[in-house]
Structure formats: structure tokens, C-alpha cells
Specification:
alpha+beta; Cytochrome-c3 Hydrogenase, chain B; three-stranded antiparallel sheet
Length: 506
């Protein structure tokens, strides 16, 4: 029997994502992912000084502001013809990597991990950990009577199979509590060179405004050590353990099988090699392909915009039309050479794995697959996305330890520039959630057009002009739903993408 299920909002902390799925015989047969609000950042930027862009676009999101700042100043670097010195390049990498790691920790423990833990087990906790004792007493009060009004983050919760092993369950909950504090360490790590977080003050075209000093290098090393300990000893082991406890989810949420990465963390000036390389993998293609920026377009047939459809971002328009017939989302539908693609940590790791230019990445992926008893193809799944983030966090804490040694105290971190009368530039980078691009056009030394194509726009897009569902919509199709009134399976697949609708409806 066919049933319609609507879940809105579906995300924790960062909401306004609606999902509608149709099930038949206990499986999802179609899905619509709905961006439920309009913001208009691209209109806000028109007519402004180009140097406003990196500050305004960081306000698109409080979770990944650094990445928007990096994309914006990279687009301006290209428009002004300026190249940051090595100190500036490395500092940008360190700030961005700190934000990646903090975002990944936040996602697993605070946004999605709560779909797996069993709070009732905490009520029988007999240990002495102060945080768990407080949580035990709170849980008892919340679960004491049917008339209690549960409050987040643990309750209310869909009824579902949760972690059965008490030791693992209590351990993940303890690490959830630890993660609330350790993510502050991640923000402090980024703020060493960013000035403050979450919205970095030092990001500018030509590099960064902060001065590299021996004291700041020492501060970064100390904070990185604390963050690395949590990633290595808690985060990655927890993800491996949860994967072992829910093996069926390696066969759920597979999606389109197409992946795109812009590449991130430049290892040399200009458009040289990046720590995580750019590339495209198409399921029906010959394997890893080089990225062709000209292949990116945006459809709007099912979006609440009256703008022209199928345009490349540099010629993009953002004209809202909330009464458009047939539309169901405020997200556009980005496509690559006409194909639906998935972006994110999984895409980055698969591209790097097949690229082969980073042996450390390939070795890390092989070691992870051995630990969870899986093959590379199994990563294309709900659990694979979680595993990719945890592994990326491990790779980045190690790489940051190497980057920090490349800084030279008291040497320039900024190259001066002049804003031209007219110009254009593209800033391609990666946010924690995937491929992020900013396109800027300047006329009369003012912004004449600005377009952003962000990760969740790629992943949560509506159908395109040819009627093909977006990456998340595709991943939801085939998902088993045991109880339509408790669609935990749908929620788990959605959260595996770590959607950020604030970005997507910029």
C-alpha cells in the first residue's frame, strides 16, 4: 500500500529542511527534498564594494563560514590577479582545516549520532562521571511519566533499533558530552589565525591580515594536540563501532554513484596540487576524470525562481517566484555535464583514492576498510558518508601538524593588490559538506553579479529540467521504512549528507 510521509523540519540545530517521501510495500519509491525559505544573499551583494563579499558571504552560515570566506577571496584573487605568499596560503589551509574538523565532530555527535544512541540505558548508569550523572538524573525526570514534555537534544526520538551494547552506547553518549567541549577547542584552533570564530576576521584577497608569530604557532600546536587526541581516540573508533553495530546501512542510501570534488588545501601557490585533489567520478564513465568547470550549470524548472534555466553560474540569475507552478523548493538544481552528482567528504575521499597522488589518503582508506571489513564500493552508502568524515578528520589533524611547520614567523602573509575597474573570478574550494563555488563579476569597481553554488544545493537539489531527482532524493529511493509513523531510516539517510539548508537557500 502506498503511503506519503512528510518530515519537516528534519535536521537538528539547523532546520527548515522538509522531506516528503512516498512508500510502497515498506520502501521509498519517490522523494522530494524541500528548501523551505528564501534569503537572497546574491541580491544583497550587487552594487557593493567587492571587499564586502568575504564578510557578507560568511554570514550565509555559522557552521561553514570560513569556507565561504575562502571561496570569496579565492574568486577575488583571480579577479585581481593576486597570489598569496606561502605563509598566507598555509594559514588559510590551517583555518579551513580547523573548521572542517570542528564541523565533522559536530555533525556526528550533535546532529546524527543521536539517531543511534539509547538514552534509556543512561538511567541505570552507576559510574561517577559528573556529566553522565547529570544526564542520568535529567533522563530519569524526562522518562518518569507519560505526561513529561521531552526537550532536546536526545528527546523526542523516533522509535527504532538503537545501539544494543551498553558499553558502546554509554561510550558514545559520553563522547557526545565531550564533543560539546572539544568543538570549542576546534573553534579556538581556527581563531588562532582567524582572529575569531565562527566568522573569520582575517580572510582577505591576497592572503590573510594576521601576522605569523612563534607564539601563535605554539598556540596552534597545543590546541591541535588536544583535538587530535579526541579524533584518534574517540571519534574515529566510535564511527567504526557504530558501523559494526548497524551493518545493514552499508546497503542503504547509496544514491546516484556520481561524485564531484573541486579539490581543497593548496600545497603550492596558484592552481597547483591540492592535498585533496579535484576530479569527477561518473558511475557510467571511464573512472576518474579531470574537473571541467564549464560543465557546471543550474536548472530551475522545479525551483521557485523565474530566472533562466540551465545557465552556467557566471551568467546565473536569482529571481524569486514563490507562486511558480510545479516548483517545490527554494534550491536550484546544479548539474555537471547534465549529470546528478554527490559532493562531500565521501566524494573527496573517493576522488583522492582513485587519483593516487596522495598515498597517505589511499593507505588510510584501505586501513579503514580493513577495520570495518568492507570494500571501497561499500563506502557509497549511509554509513560510508559517516566513515569518510571521520577519516578525513584524522587525515587533517595529521596534515595540520605538517602545515604548521611550514610557517615562517614574521614573514609576509599578504600580497597587496588593486581592485580593477572591471574583472571576473571564480573561487572553487570545498566546505565540510562538499564542493563550494563563488563566481564574482566586477563593473565600475562594484559587484555587478555574484553567484554561489554550495554543497547542499548540489546534494539536496530538486529535480532538474529533465525530471531527474537530486542526489539526496535519489539516495532515499529504495530505503526501507519499517513504520511510516517512525521513519528513522529516512532521517538517518538524510542526516548522512549533513545537510545545511542555511547555505543551500542562501
Amino acid at each position: 500500500m502506498k503511503e506519503m510521509i512528510s518530515v519537516s523540519p528534519v535536521t537538528r540545530i539547523e532546520g527548515h529542511l522538509g522531506v516528503k517521501v512516498e512508500t510502497d510495500g515498506g520502501r521509498v519509491t519517490s522523494a522530494q527534498v524541500v528548501g523551505e525559505m528564501f534569503r537572497g544573499f546574491e541580491q544583497i551583494l550587487r552594487g557593493r564594494d567587492p571587499l564586502d563579499a568575504q564578510q557578507i558571504t560568511q554570514r550565509i552560515c555559522g557552521v561553514c563560514p570560513v569556507e565561504h570566506g575562502i571561496a570569496s577571496i579565492s574568486a577575488q584573487d583571480a579577479a585581481y590577479g593576486v597570489t598569496p605568499p606561502d605563509n598566507g596560503r598555509v594559514v588559510r589551509n590551517l583555518i579551513q582545516a580547523a573548521n572542517f574538523i570542528t564541523s565533522h565532530l559536530t555533525h556526528f555527535y550533535l546532529l546524527s549520532g543521536l539517531d543511534f544512541v539509547d538514552l534509556t540505558q543512561v538511567t541505570t548508569y552507576t559510574g561517577r562521571d559528573p556529566a553522565l550523572v547529570r544526564l542520568r538524573d535529567w533522563a530519569k525526570s524526562q522518562l518518569a511519566s507519560a505526561t513529561a514534555n521531552p526537550v532536546g537534544p536526545f528527546l523526542p526520538q523516533f522509535t527504532a533499533q538503537l545501539i544494543r551494547d551498553p558499553a558502546l552506547n554509554i561510550g558514545v553518549i559520553k563522547h557526545y558530552l565531550d564533543a560539546i567541549e572539544i568543538r570549542q577547542v576546534g573553534h579556538k584552533l581556527g581563531a588562532v589565525f582567524a582572529g575569531k570564530m565562527p566568522h573569520a576576521a582575517t580572510l582577505v584577497p591576497g592572503g590573510v591580515t594576521d601576522q605569523v608569530t612563534a607564539i601563535k604557532i605554539a598556540q596552534f600546536r597545543a590546541l591541535l594536540g588536544r583535538l587530535r587526541t579526541f579524533v584518534v581516540e574517540s571519534y574515529l573508533p566510535d564511527v567504526v563501532a557504530v558501523a559494526a553495530a548497524f551493518p545493514d546501512y552499508f546497503g542503504i542510501g547509496r544514491g546516484c554513484g556520481n561524485f564531484l570534488s573541486y579539490g581543497v588545501f593548496p600545497e603550492a601557490s596558484g592552481m597547483g596540487a591540492r592535498f585533496l585533489p579535484a576530479g569527477v567520478i561518473l558511475a557510467d564513465g571511464p573512472g576518474l576524470q579531470p574537473l571541467n568547470v564549464e560543465g557546471i550549470t543550474e536548472d530551475v524548472r522545479y525551483s521557485w525562481f523565474s530566472s533562466a534555466t540551465g545557465r552556467k553560474p557566471a551568467q546565473g540569475e536569482t529571481t524569486p517566484d514563490p507562486n511558480k507552478t510545479g516548483a517545490y523548493s527554494w534550491l536550484k538544481a546544479p548539474r555537471y555535464d547534465g549529470q546528478v552528482v554527490e559532493v562531500g567528504a565521501l566524494a573527496r575521499l573517493l576522488v583522492a583514492y582513485h587519483d593516487g597522488s596522495r598515498p597517505a589518503v589511499r593507505t588510510a582508506v584501505d586501513d579503514l576498510l580493513k577495520a570495518i571489513g568492507r570494500e571501497p564500493k561499500d563506502l557509497i552508502s549511509m554509513l560510508g558518508r559517516h566513515a569518510a568524515r571521520a577519516l578525513e578528520a584524522r587525515l587533517l589533524v595529521d596534515r595540520c601538524a605538517e602545515w604548521i611547520e611550514q610557517l615562517v614567523p614574521d614573514q609576509p602573509a599578504f600580497t597587496d593588490f588593486t581592485i580593477p575597474e572591471s574583472g571576473a573570478g571564480i573561487g572553487l574550494t570545498e566546505a565540510a559538506r562538499g564542493a563550494l563555488g563563488h563566481w564574482i563579476e566586477i563593473r565600475g569597481r562594484k559587484i555587478s553579479n555574484y553567484q554561489c553554488v554550495v554543497p547542499t544545493t548540489w546534494n539536496c537539489s530538486p529535480r532538474d529540467d529533465r525530471g531527474r531527482p537530486g542526489a539526496m532524493e535519489t539516495a532515499l529511493i529504495g530505503t526501507p521504512v519499517a513504520d511510516p509513523k517512525q521513519p528513522i531510516e529516512v532521517a538517518r539517510v538524510i542526516r548522512s549528507f549533513d545537510p545545511c539548508l542555511a547555505c543551500a537557500v542562501h
